[in-house]
Amino acid sequence: MARTAVVSRILPFSCVDGPGNRLVIFLQGCNFHCPGCHNPHTIGLCDHCGDCVADCPSGALTMAEGRVSWQGALCTHCDRCTDGCPRQASPKTRVMSVAEVLAELRRYGPLLSGVTVSGGEATTQLPFVVALFTLIKADPELVRLSCLLDSNGSLSLAGWQRLLPVLDGAMLDLKGWRDEVHRALTGYDRERVLASLQLLARCGKLAELRLLQVPGRTDFVDEGGRLDAGLCAFLQSLGPISIRLNGFRHHGVRGGALSWQEAGMEELQRLAKALIAKGFGPIALPALV
Ligand code: SF4
Ligand code: SF4
């Protein structure tokens, strides 16, 4: 099992990445190419081209022996390096071992309910996730922490079979219903996402389904505000599940998607109403949009 991963950042405490108070590990790298991504600098992996070094106004980046290194103490988090990176990467990632992440968990453990591995797309570094969750489950001090995954759902069924024995639950996104809409919004077809949702629901490990509403682009409801019949049948086949609605916002987005309309609360309430009318629930809405 891989004992290291490229980590974008660690958030010691979060109350929005699963139930309770959670330490969140954001892994670098994603296999989807969502034009509306709000964390585009987590998509690519740095190839140490060095282009960003001269752009740093604080001298926090240096090039040595063909590799870029970042000094956190000098960084002002101005984002110039990530904004200008041609690979949608960041020079501020670090390679962490499972042992280092376990040390962070022990440090904050008494205040935590669990750990969530997010991204990027966490399952692009699956061996690390499996190793981490396996060691948490085997550690008497950490075993009480629940192990959750935040994922785009693209993992293969064989991959899920490796992860399921040590996974307590996964939150999965669905960004479009019809295949052409899903592909336009993610760069990837929907089949694996649907198969992942079915597998997790069958195993009782689908912690949450997240529907992202992008005005004029997502196809969850028709013009009359009715839930798409195919989506409705698919959701019914999953059995009772928790659904969270997220609205597209411009925060963090780059490029053409900045011209897309943002989703307001009214639009999310319309989708919630369509879901509730078909008997789905509970439906969680953002506190503020
Ligand atoms: S972060 Fe981007 S620009 Fe900077 S060295 Fe890595 S690939 Fe090059
Ligand atoms: S975010 Fe930090 S490392 Fe990147 S350019 Fe700004 S100061 Fe330099």
Automatic annotation (TrEMBL):
Cofactor(s) required, per the database record: [4Fe-4S] cluster
Entry-linked Pfam families: Radical_SAM (PF04055)
Coiled-coil regions listed in the entry: none
Keywords: 4Fe-4S, Iron, Iron-sulfur, Metal-binding, Oxidoreductase, S-adenosyl-L-methionine
The species this protein was found in: Aeromonas lusitana
Protein name in the entry: YjjW family glycine radical enzyme activase
Keyword Iron-sulfur tagged: yes
Superkingdom of origin: Bacteria
Transmembrane regions: none
Domain 4Fe-4S ferredoxin-type: residue ranges: 46-66
Domain Radical SAM core: 16-281
Similarity-based family: Belongs to the organic radical-activating enzymes family.
InterPro entries: 4Fe4S_Fe-S-bd, 4Fe4S_Fe_S_CS, Aldolase_TIM, BssD/PflA/YjjW, Organic_radical-activating, Organic_radical_activase, Radical_activat_CS, rSAM
GO molecular function, one term: 4 iron, 4 sulfur cluster binding
